[in-house]
Amino acid sequence: MALVDQNKLYKDLESKKFQPIYFLFGDEPYLLNQCVDRFKYAVLDENTMDFNYSLFYSGDAEISNVRDTVETLPVFSPQRLIILKNAHELKDAELMQLEPILENPVDSSVFVIFAEKVDKRKKAIKILLDKAICVEFKKPYDNQIPQWISYLCQNLDLRITADAIHRLHRLVGNNLSELDSQIQKIQQYIGTKTNIELGDVNAVVSFSREESIFDFTKAIGQKDRVKALEQLVSLLDQGQNEIGIIALLSRHVRMLLTVRSGMDQGIGGAKLASLAQVPSYFIESYCDQARVWPIRKLEDALVVLHETDKALKSSPVSSHIWLENMVLKSCSL
Fold first, then answer.
1. Which overall architecture, per CATH, does domain 2-137 show?
2. Residue 172's pLDDT band (cuts 50, 70, 90)
3. CA-based Rg of the chain, rounded to a whole angstrom?
4. Longest dimension (CA), the chain
5. Cα–Cα dist 58/95, whole Å
């Protein structure tokens, strides 16, 4: 049918404009999980919910049962709601069992299929993308996180100061589920207070691993070999995944590349922060690091990171050796 944005989906649900099949996918589990409640609130009546709501998890469900439920008529209601979660865990042949109701949707059912990773080469996924109302939920960019933190606080009738937002963002990153969890912990900590301050964040949110990651990428950005090696040891001691370290560092270097390119074009301040998609309060740190790197050297660093990622996934040599070599190569570019 169509790929629509999430705001269009929300408006249609509020207006009770339902389609028989939805396919919601992406790498932002918080937004995906929120949609379950949005559909329940929009489609179902509280008095008949028990008769007209079915939730299936792909790892446990028989797909034939899912299909039969979709084809079952609602009880004392215009629609029934059927949700299938974790569809990315299904094999293509299993998903293809849904083809009859994808090709001939049941108007009295609202069938919502959730998935995280989507392999668009699969025949069933191609059919879903063609037949369903599709919405992709991507992780927000770094420069969108301050607004999200404010929004998550408002949902709990809380206000949060700018420096507390800055600190929470630095410690937690752009994981909305973790941000929401930490804000709820802070709410319990502050009791009857309704305003979150910097001290509240520092008192509640653990910072050992997050600070180590931040310090590690910053040390590489500053070409501080000794500090980078120290932080690498700390990350590995904490159990940080080696592939995850490379992914985080690659993202950091790409941001530095964007910042350096913008600086070379005479762009600065808020405009540069927007271009790099980072909050304005981080941009000076990125600029300081980017000044150390010519563009060609940043491109070389990305090649080193790609080669290290490939080696970690295929080489029998101990992973820490590849990571240490990566640090030494990157800081000497």
1. 3-Layer(aba) Sandwich (3.40)
2. confident
3. 24
4. 71
5. 10
Q: How far is CA 152 from the centre of its chain?
A: 15
Per DSSP, the residues of 272-283 read HHHHHT--HHHH
The pLDDT tens digits for 115-139 are 987 877 888 888 888 889 999 998 8
**CATH 1.10.8.60 assigned to 142-204:** yes
DSSP 216-232: HHHHHHTT-HHHHHHHH
C-beta separation of 195 from 161 below 8 A: yes
Would you give the end-to-end CA distance of the chain in angstroms? 49
Tokens of 246: 């490379």
- Rounded to whole angstroms, how far apart are CA atoms 45 and 80? 10
Distance from C-alpha of 71 to C-alpha of 108, rounded to nearest angstrom: 8
pLDDT of residue 193: 92
DSSP assignment string, 94-105? HHGGGHHHHHS-
| CATH code of domain 208-331 | 1.20.272.10
List Cα–Cα distances, 163 to 47, 80, 238, 278, in angstroms: 46, 46, 27, 16
Q: What is the pTM of this model?
A: 0.66
Q: What is the pLDDT of residue 1?
A: 59
Q: What is the DSSP letter of 56?
A: E
Question: Cα(72)–Cα(80) distance, rounded to whole angstroms?
Answer: 8
